[in-house]
């Protein structure tokens, strides 16, 4: 376990629990989220948190059998912050009273909290303007606060919006300080971790040193193979592991013929030439495109690619000979997802392509040096390791590549058209300085031809759709509000520069109800 000061987030199933962790990590505090069921007396003793946060959650503490932490948490002598459902848990556990929600007392959305009490430790930097905007989302409400607590802030719908027992350093708020709609929320977290005595020792420089030591201990003089996709996560993992064990690492880059313009060359140049990392460049485009010939169903495409990827990776990995370990760029959100309170998604919307089946199939042990990190931390680590900024900031690219941006049947001709259009579009976005504001942008080539007129002639070519979204984690997304000038300039460039496209549309669907990719 890490040597850093640790904060424990007990997850009661809120949709925004991950945001609490992100806010804390931004403040250089190491924290972990654990579902309340796993937080036992023994767990608490072993974890030895310096502070605890109770997340929000969908249940009602007035219901018998509703989620609770072990009562020993209150005897640890460490500060506790309860948020929303977490506040109600604290009040109920410590002798207050919570009432089940009625329509009249439920409160959702923006609210304003007025100061009613004083606590310089917790409220430092708050109420400078007399009141604070916060985000509420609760059905139940606290009817009576627990003995020892006082009210520091109140809103029309939540008389006990901020409560505190400064002697025990227990704090409880009805709103969500972790969301953007509580603009000054970060300050409350800052105050909480300061009063808990955190040193702010969670930095990427420290993480790098520790991760390298850990990899060396785990791997010894064994061999590691790593599947490189050219994405940020696997690249950062590879560079970190290479720094730890040098040529004991071999990377396998499977080129399935569904990459963007120049992508394969860039990845190979960076890893083999720049970093000198042993790299097998497996050009398997004939195999993949052959298997996809005539396939138009999105799920069949995804499954075909996923299965072939595993076969091909396995074939080339065998060339390395005697590898015992497989490196993966698994991130903390993936880890949380697999143990989360509410479980993973209940319906399969898309079969995500990954190499999850590999370790068991190949009898390999996993090396996952990014397991504790969020995406933005991986980028910071990449920076620390000296990866070029242009590479670190690249938009995510899905494993099945252009196959899922070419709805319907895929042909080499269509892929070529798509690559060119995509390159023009991304160039436009970069030229206008918008690349870093956008989570992901790409072109989808539509399986329709439309009639146009260019010069004096008739054209009958493909239509394409531009996609650009903002998002925090890819789970939800909004389309990006380009200016009309940008859109018309881009459409003109694509039609002029890309033979085969004569019509450009802009996709203004958010997620949900759409998804980011087209298939
Ligand atoms: P959707 O289309 O589901 O995409 O809204 C959400 C995010 O996930 C990426 N994506 C994938 N990434 N393998 C991946 O590694 C996949 O099979 C896959 N499918 C979608 C997508 O690009 C977006 O960032």
**What would you say the CATH architecture of the largest domain is?**
3-Layer(aba) Sandwich
Briefly note the structural class of the backbone: alpha/beta
CATH fold annotation of the largest domain: Rossmann fold
**Mean pLDDT, as a whole number?**
92
The strands making up the biggest β-sheet line up spatially as 2-1-3-4-11-10-9-6-7
Could you give the topology of this structure?
Blueprint: E1 6-11, H1 17-26, E2 30-35, H2 41-47, E3 51-54, E4 80-83, H3 85-93, E5 97-99, E6 107-115, H4 120-123, E7 131-138, E8 141-144, E9 150-155, E10 158-165, E11 170-173, H5 185-195, H6 204-219, E12 223-228, H7 232-245, E13 249-255, H8 263-274, E14 279-283, H9 285-292, H10 298-320, E15 323-327, H11 332-339, H12 358-362, E16 365-367, H13 375-384, H14 389-392, H15 412-431, E17 440-454, E18 457-470, E19 478-479, H16 484-497, E20 501-506
Parallel strand pairs: 1-2, 1-3, 3-4, 4-11, 12-13, 12-15, 13-14, 15-16, 18-20
Antiparallel strand pairs: 5-8, 6-7, 6-9, 9-10, 10-11, 17-18, 18-19
The structure holds xanthosine-5'-monophosphate.
Xanthosine-5'-monophosphate is lined by residues 350, 352-353, 396, 398-400, 440, 474, 511, 515-517.
What report would you give on this structure?
- Strands 2-1-3-4-11-10-9-6-7 form a nine-stranded mixed beta sheet, with helices on both faces. A five-stranded parallel beta sheet has the order 14-13-12-15-16, with helices on both faces.
- The longest helix is centred in the middle third of the chain and has 23 residues, at 298-320.
- Helix 9 (285-292) runs antiparallel to helix 10 (298-320) and helix 15 packs antiparallel against helix 16 (484-497).
- The protein has 16 helices and 20 strands.
- 34% of the residues lie in helices and 24% in strands.
- It has helices at 17-26, 41-47, 85-93, 120-123, 185-195, 204-219, 232-245, 263-274, 285-292, 298-320, 332-339, 358-362, 375-384, 389-392, 412-431, 484-497, and strands at 6-11, 30-35, 51-54, 80-83, 97-99, 107-115, 131-138, 141-144, 150-155, 158-165, 170-173, 223-228, 249-255, 279-283, 323-327, 365-367, 440-454, 457-470, 478-479, 501-506.
- It has three domains: 7-196, Rossmann fold (3-Layer(aba) Sandwich); 204-393, 3-Layer(aba) Sandwich (Rossmann fold); 412-506, GMP Synthetase, Chain A, domain 3 (2-Layer Sandwich), CATH 3.30.300.
- Residues 340-346 have low confidence and may be disordered.
- By secondary structure, the protein is of the alpha/beta class.
- The chain binds xanthosine-5'-monophosphate (XMP).
- The site of xanthosine-5'-monophosphate (XMP) has 13 residues, from loops.
């Amino acid at each position: 376990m890490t040597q850093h000061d640790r904060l424990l987030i007990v997850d009661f199933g809120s949709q925004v629990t991950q945001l609490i962790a992100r806010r804390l990590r931004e403040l250089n505090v190491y924290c972990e989220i654990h579902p309340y069921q796993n937080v036992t007396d023994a767990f608490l003793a072993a974890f030895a948190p310096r502070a605890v946060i109770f997340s929000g959650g969908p249940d009602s503490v007035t219901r018998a059998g509703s989620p609770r932490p072990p009562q020993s948490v209150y005897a640890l002598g460490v500060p506790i912050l309860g948020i929303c459902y977490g506040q109600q848990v604290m009040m109920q556990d410590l002798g207050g009273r919570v009432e089940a929600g009625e329509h009249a007392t439920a409160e959702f959305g923006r609210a304003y909290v007025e100061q009613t009490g004083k606590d310089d430790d917790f409220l430092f930097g708050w109420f400078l303007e007399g009141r604070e905007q916060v985000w509420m989302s609760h059905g139940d409400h606290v009817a009576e606060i627990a003995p020892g607590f006082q009210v520091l802030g109140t809103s029309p719908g939540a008389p006990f919006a901020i409560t505190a027992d400064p002697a025990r350093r227990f704090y409880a708020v009805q709103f969500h300080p972790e969301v953007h709609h509580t603009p000054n929320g970060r300050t409350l977290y800052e105050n909480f971790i300061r009063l808990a005595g955190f040193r702010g020792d969670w930095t990427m420089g420290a993480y790098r040193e520790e991760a390298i030591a850990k990899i060396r201990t785990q791997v010894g003089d064994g061999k590691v193979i790593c599947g490189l996709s050219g994405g940020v996560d696997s690249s950062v993992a590879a560079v970190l592991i290479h720094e730890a064990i040098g040529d004991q690492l071999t990377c396998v880059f499977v080129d399935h013929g569904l990459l963007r313009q120049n992508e394969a060359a860039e990845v190979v140049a960076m890893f083999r030439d720049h970093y000198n990392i042993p790299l097998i460049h497996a050009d398997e485009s004939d195999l993949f495109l052959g298997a996809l010939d005539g396939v138009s169903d999105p799920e069949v495409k995804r499954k075909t690619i996923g299965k072939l990827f595993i076969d091909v990776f396995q074939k080339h990995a065998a060339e390395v000979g005697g590898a015992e370990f497989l490196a993966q760029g698994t991130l903390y959100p993936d880890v949380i997802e697999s143990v989360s309170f509410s479980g993973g998604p209940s319906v399969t919307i898309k079969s995500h392509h990954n190499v999850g089946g590999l370790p068991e199939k190949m009898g390999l042990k996993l090396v996952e040096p990014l397991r504790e990190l969020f995406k933005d931390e991986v980028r910071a680590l990449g920076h620390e390791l000296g990866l070029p900024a242009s590479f670190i900031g690249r938009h995510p690219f899905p494993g099945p590549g252009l196959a899922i941006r070419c709805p319907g049947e895929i042909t080499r001709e269509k892929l070529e058209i798509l690559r060119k259009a995509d390159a023009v579009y991304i160039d436009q976005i970069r030229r206008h300085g918008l690349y870093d504001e956008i989570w992901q942008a790409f072109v989808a080539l539509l399986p329709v031809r439309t009639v146009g007129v260019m010069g004096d002639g008739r054209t009958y070519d493909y239509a394409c759709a531009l996609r650009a979204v903002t998002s925090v984690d890819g789970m939800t997304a909004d389309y990006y509000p380009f200016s009309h000038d940008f859109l018309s300039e881009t459409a003109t460039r694509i039609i002029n520069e890309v033979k085969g496209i004569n019509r450009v549309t802009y996709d203004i669907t958010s997620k949900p109800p759409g998804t980011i990719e087209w298939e």
